[in-house]
Amino acid sequence: MTDVLDELQWRGLIAQHTDIDALRSALSEGPLTFYCGFDPTAPSLHHGHLVAVKLMRHLQLAGHHPLALVGGATGLIGDPRPVGERTMNSKDVVGEWANSLKGQLENLLDFEGQNPARIVNNLDWTSELSAIDLLRDLGKHFRMGTMLSKDIVARRLESEDGISYTEFSYQILQANDYLELFRRYGCTLEVGGNDQWGNLVGGMDLIRKIEGQSVHVLTNPLITKADGSKFGKSEGGAIWLNPEMLSPYKFYQFWLNTADEDVIRMLKVFTFRSREEIEELEQQSIERPQAREAQRVLASDVTSWVHGEQATERVIQASRALFGGEDLGDLDGATLRDAVDELPSAEAAVGTPLVELFVRAGLEKGIGAARRTASSGGLNINNAKVTDAAGVLDGTDVLPGGIVLLRKGKKNLAVVRVKE
Question: For the motif 'KMSKS' region, what are the positions (predicted)?
Fold first, then answer.
């Protein structure tokens, strides 16, 4: 069971840790229980959360028992941000978001077999904690100097906005989570993002002070690109795991667009491919970078993990279909709409001259030019060549979702959305 630490280090999934030798010894003594917390500050997890979940999954595969904590209580408070106070969402909203996160975590971890994961919610014990209990039983173990010296708190205190007592108290509630899970489940390891180091250590110290026991903390790094910038964000914002907030097609495209200098590290972090497989993909990337095989594997594996293999197959089929590799008519309307969402578009009705469609969509400057291109075989509708420059749009040309795909040459794409 100690091999998992070596595996995590090779994959770049360890940032900071408490006594690594003590943790290695604890892992070698048999399965231990560990936890990671996820606050419902939005309706969905995003790609950054996958790093912590991936670390959890490796520990689970090594035989250790995962607790996935959904912060129904801490989500009402909000972990301090580097700048400005968080918006205080209502209890109903936070409750809905907590249920949403629970459903996503159930798809990412294994909840069956001999070593199933378990979902816990810190609202279960925090809601029973009175103000007197908080101050007497917990508050007395925290020193103001230590709390004020934490990086995020210190930065907020120096800012114009300062920090409220509400967010300042967050670290006490998170520390109490570790204490409660230690008492209830024998949890002796907390994992989380490296930006949570201070909060994680606070829980470890609280257990030592109250229970007189030593426990462990391990953080994963915040993933950056080769140039040091943050890995993430699409044009529309965060890389959400909820398909209603970011379609599987766009999710897949995000990973497919990973830069050559980053892709091998991302394969280590975000996939379960073996060392041998990743080393082979690295060699392929050196020899044939234009094939982008490593990016394709990364996009396929992560999308399958998050959205399932069927959704990934539809996305890949749609990607191929846009450039003539698949039959567009086999795609469902939702996937097709997602695939063409960012293409230049225009509206038209059945009966519109075909060459006019290319002018409306901006692929041709005028009707005459469109006719000349069509005559030379350079225009395609739904991957079929336009053979009649005088033809009109027929109802049978309209794909699911009211879409007609236009292509000029090999790479110039646009879409026509047909009015009903």
Answer: 230-234
> According to the annotation, is 185 in a ligand binding site?
no
249 annotated ligand-binding residue: no
35 is in an annotated binding site: yes
User: pTM score, two decimals?
Assistant: 0.87
The answer to whether the CB of 85 falls within 8 A of the CB of 161 is: yes
Collect all residues with Cβ–Cβ distance below 8 Å to 149 and sequence separation of at least 6. Answer: none
Where in the chain are the domains?
3-220, 248-307, 345-418
Q: Tell me which CATH homologous superfamily contains domain 248-307.
A: Tyrosyl-Transfer RNA Synthetase (1.10.240.10)
Nearest to 152 by CA among 165, 166, 139, 163: 163
How far is residue 94's CA from residue 373's CA, in Å, rounded to a whole number?
Answer: 56
Residue 233 is assigned to a ligand binding site: yes
Per-residue pLDDT averaged across 317-324, rounded? 81
Q: What is the pLDDT of residues 376-418, one digit of tens each?
A: 999 999 988 999 989 999 999 999 889 999 999 888 999 999 9
